[in-house]
Amino acid sequence: MKPPPFVYHRPATVEQAARLLADLGDDAKVIAGGQSLVPLLNFRLAAPAHLVDVNHLGLDEVTVTGGALDVGATVRTARLIDDPAVAGAAPLLAEGAGWVAHPVIRNRGTVCGSLAHADPAAELPAVLALVGGEVQAVAWRAGRLASRRVAAADLYAGPLQTTLDADELVVAARFPALPARTGWAVEELARRHGDYAMAGVALTVTVDGEGAPVAARAAYLSCAPTPLVVDLGPADGATLRERVAAALDPTDDIHATAAYRRHLAAVLTERAYDRALARARSATPDPTPEVPP
Ligand code: FAD
Fold first, then answer.
1. How far is the CA of 75 from the centre of ligand 1 (A)?
2. What is the pLDDT of residues 106-148, one digit of tens each?
3. Within this chain, do residues 168 and 233 fall inside the same structural domain, yes or no?
4. What pLDDT, in 10s, does the model give residues 218-267?
5. Total number of domains in the chain
6. Beta partners for 183?
7. Residues 111 and 144 occupy one common structural domain
8. Is 173 in the pocket of ligand 1 (CB under 6 A)?
9. Domain that holds residue 81
10. Which of 53, 73, 167, 254 is the most buried (most CB within 10 A)?
11. 196 and 171 in one domain?
């Protein structure tokens, strides 16, 4: 299938893009990497009259400020893995990015596009929610560029739905650094390598000076309409499995039954917990992200 006809806009500044989005309203969609939007157009599941290309606004910077990673709107997902400075500064994010689709898609798809697309099966929204991150969004309001920060906890409204207005443009995302003595892991299972996961989890464990776990948090993907953050407390074994079972209420779909998803989430949580705990206990955690083959 070919996409339905649209008018293509190529603004050169953030202000031009925001003004265009304000003028065009619901008739326009932002296009970044196009890795989710173009299939939707080709399948005629979306038919915006206008596409506003945000690839030429100079928003391709990654900066580390006080440990937090700021990722511009057109930073590609591959950069989280391929750039050693970025992967070293945010190894949990790098590990999550390694599970996103295939290299070809990661080379083009953007981090902020994935966050804005709000697919409940996507890894990066779950990581953003787990670390308490946020996006910075701008819009043209009352004759000027208005900017606001939206925490991950307030960003997701449902499958493929955010709380952002149709004319808001995400210009950056911020992933805060993990607390001290905190290990991380991302685990998921898909039918074929690179497919969206049937269930997945991003998880952190924090230990005290003796190496005893004092906190554990997890964010689940493909288990709820939006990324689901669960405070697991310092638990392991049967207690951990019980907490996962109590927190999750997944649904059936063509990919997996609810019961299988629940089982999978518990197994993946235990695996992730063990790896995260080992990393937390290691005095100098290995900064090399573990990327799936
Ligand atoms: P686009 O496709 O350009 O846009 C997606 C949506 O976000 C659109 O609604 C667009 O208007 C909006 N948007 C984009 N950027 C902004 C912005 N700056 N501000 C406001 N709105 C914006 N993803 C996963 O997470 N995990 C997977 O396993 C996975 N597997 C995939 C497998 C295949 C075969 C394909 C084709 C895609 C897969 N994806 C997967 C999706 C991929 O990661 C996309 O690149 C990503 O979801 C969207 O990023 P994008 O830059 O391509 O956004």
1. 12
2. 999 999 999 999 999 999 999 999 999 999 999 999 999 999 9
3. no
4. 999 999 999 999 999 988 788 999 999 899 999 998 888 999 999 999 99
5. 3
6. 205
7. yes
8. no
9. 62-176
10. 73
11. no
